[in-house]
Structure formats: structure tokens, C-alpha cells
Amino acid sequence: MTLVRIEGVHKTFGQHHVLRGIDMTIKQGEVSVIIGPSGSGKSTLLRCVNKMESISAGRIHVRDELIGYREVNGQLHDLNPRQIAAQRREIGMVFQRFNLFPHKTALQNVMEAPIQVKKIAKSEARRKALELLEQVGLADRAGHYPAQLSGGQQQRVAIARALAMEPELMLFDEPTSALDPELVGDVLQVMKDLAKSGMTMMVVTHEIGFAREVGDTLSFMDGGVVVESGDPREMITNPQHSRTKEFLSRVL
Ligand code: ADP
Ligand code: MG
């Protein structure tokens, strides 16, 4: 079953045409890895999928629901903020910078949204949050504040916090790019486990090893288009397009 359908998506910022016709489908349970040079539009694409940015043309569907808009006679009209918030709840996002609440413990960070947004009972939210912290290998850090955690631990708390909303899709925007090299592995392991558990994921990363090992599809973006996409192992070993070849030779 197709979970995410991106069709003919364009995005302009003023005169700047950043996404120039993106088509992408992601099946339920698939891991779609996106690579490409800085400025190619990867973050913008992810931000369009959860309506942090509005699109200039095209359509994005998640589970047959049009994201961010309702369509009347072929025209798109913005959903209201409440409707957009409801759609976003189904989509977890993890950023390069973890943005945890600094004055809350790891546990409180993970419990916050289910209590505030989903109105879940505190005891239930706590039970679930402890389970999630265990899942990301941080059961023993529940009472720590972000400043007392390493970057990799903070990022794993951020992943647990996104999972606490029980999203059906997870977006990762260079989740390990801000980390010291020795902390990258633990975060990638959590993402691998999540993929194995059947989570549908869109992952922007420069970790080619992760793409090869965990990715179901790999897309190479440049200049606001998907230049090439396909089986990660095939594409990494034998890229078809000269721009893909050149990019891979720089990051491998
Ligand atoms: P990537 O994530 O691949 O590095 P981005 O999606 O962040 O690329 O950016 C693609 C292009 O869009 C860049 O040229 C960037 O400057 C531009 N851009 C991104 N966000 C904005 C914005 N809010 N306003 C204007 N330009 C933007
Ligand atoms: Mg980016």
C-alpha cells in the first residue's frame, strides 16, 4: 500500500524556484532515503510533507489524505490551523538540531505532547514514555536534563518524543549531521530498529552506509529535482547519472 504520494510538487520562495517538480511514492513500511548537495531542496521537501511549508503546485497525499489543503474544482485552499495540526500529529519529524525543552527532563520531554495534545492521562503518558526511552536505549537517563545528555542521547530523546505521538510516518532531516562522529552510530542504530519495526520513514542523510543497509529506495536530489532514484545498493555501486556519480564520489 502506498502511504506517501508526492506528485508534481513545486515550491518557490519569491523568485527562487526551489522544488521543480518532485514525484515520489513511498509504500507503507518503506524507508526512503534522500541524498543530495546542500541547497538541493531536501529540507524543503520534508517541510512540505508536514506543511511547515506550503507548496506552490502539485499534491502531497499521506494515506489518501491531501496534506495541508482541500481541493475544490482543482483549486487548493489552505486547511485551517486546527486541521493542519491534526494532520501533523500523524507525522513525526526529527531535525538536525534536537530542540528539546531545556528545562524538562528526558521523560518530561517525551510525555509532553501526548498529555498536552492528545489529552492522554499522565500515568499512561509516563508509562509509554518510559517504554520509548527504553526503546532508544535511554531508560537510565529518564531523569536527566538535556544539558546533562550527549548530543546523541539528546537526539535519541527527540526520536522518542516524536514516536510518543504514534505517527504513521517519520521524517528525519540530517539527524546525525550535528553529532560528533562517535555518537552517530547509536542514533543510526535506533533508526535501523525503527525501520525494522515497520515504520515508514523519509530520511535525508549523508550516511551512505545507512542508505545502503536500511534504505528501500534512494533518491538523489540536485537543483530541486530528483535526478535519479532506485535500489540503494544498485545506485551506490552503479549510478547512472553523471551528477549522482560525482556526488557519491565526494561522500563515499
Ligand atoms: P537542502 O536541505 O537540500 O540543503 P533546502 O531545502 O534547505 O536545501 O534549501 C533549498 C534552497 O531553498 C536553498 O537555496 C535555500 O536557500 C532556499 N530556501 C530554503 N528555505 C527558504 C526560505 N524560507 N526562504 C527563502 N529561501 C529558502
Ligand atoms: Mg537541509
Automatic annotation (TrEMBL):
<dbReference type="GO" id="GO:0005886">
    <property type="term" value="C:plasma membrane"/>
</dbReference>
<dbReference type="InterPro" id="IPR030679">
    <property type="entry name" value="ABC_ATPase_HisP-typ"/>
</dbReference>
<dbReference type="GO" id="GO:0005524">
    <property type="term" value="F:ATP binding"/>
</dbReference>
<dbReference type="InterPro" id="IPR003439">
    <property type="entry name" value="ABC_transporter-like_ATP-bd"/>
</dbReference>
<dbReference type="GO" id="GO:0016887">
    <property type="term" value="F:ATP hydrolysis activity"/>
</dbReference>
<keyword id="KW-0813">Transport</keyword>
<dbReference type="Pfam" id="PF00005">
    <property type="entry name" value="ABC_tran"/>
</dbReference>
<dbReference type="InterPro" id="IPR003593">
    <property type="entry name" value="AAA+_ATPase"/>
</dbReference>
<keyword id="KW-0067">ATP-binding</keyword>
<dbReference type="InterPro" id="IPR027417">
    <property type="entry name" value="P-loop_NTPase"/>
</dbReference>
<keyword id="KW-0472">Membrane</keyword>
<feature type="domain" description="ABC transporter">
    <location>
        <begin position="4"/>
        <end position="248"/>
    </location>
</feature>
<dbReference type="InterPro" id="IPR050086">
    <property type="entry name" value="MetN_ABC_transporter-like"/>
</dbReference>
<keyword id="KW-0547">Nucleotide-binding</keyword>
<dbReference type="GO" id="GO:0015426">
    <property type="term" value="F:ATPase-coupled polar amino acid-transporter activity"/>
</dbReference>
<protein>
    <recommendedName>
        <fullName>ABC-type polar-amino-acid transporter</fullName>
        <ecNumber>7.4.2.1</ecNumber>
    </recommendedName>
</protein>
<dbReference type="InterPro" id="IPR017871">
    <property type="entry name" value="ABC_transporter-like_CS"/>
</dbReference>
<keyword id="KW-1003">Cell membrane</keyword>
